[in-house]
Design goal:
about 130 residues; mainly beta; seven-stranded mixed beta sheet; 11 strands
């Protein structure tokens, strides 16, 4: 089990960039597949991006591939989400999640595979 704390959210204007961080503690970080999900007001939580334990394999939601990037620094026990050219529709609470396997079998987007979740960080994009 790992504890996850997100940071880096805030209020930005359309077109701006943000980098979210998720710091993990309580486990061997490299043994976890990590992911970001987001939940917009009135909508279900949606997959944003995932990354395997070594950082060598990533998966992004198709609609976000040209603007978002996921990465991790295992020495710092941290996973990042770089978000560029932000749009008002990116407004959501962004949460990181950890799955207890370094190699994800099947889609990264299946929430049930993730055992630990952070509290989330709010990202608001104004037009």
């Amino acid at each position: 089990q790992v504890q996850l704390v997100e940071s880096g959210g805030g209020l930005v204007q359309a077109g701006d960039s943000l980098r979210l961080s998720c710091a993990a503690s309580g486990g061997t970080f490299s043994e976890y597949t990590m992911a970001w999900f987001r939940q917009a007001p009135g909508k279900e939580r949606a997959f944003v991006a995932g990354i395997n334990g070594s950082g060598g394999t990533t998966s992004l939601a198709t609609s976000l591939k040209d603007r978002f990037t996921i990465s991790r620094d295992n020495a710092k026990n941290t996973v990042y989400l770089q978000m560029n050219k932000l749009k008002p529709e990116d407004t959501a609470v962004y949460s990181c999640a950890a799955a207890p396997t370094p190699h994800m079998s099947g889609p990264y987007s299946h929430e049930e595979k993730y055992s630990d979740w952070g509290q989330g960080t709010q990202v608001t994009v104004s037009s």
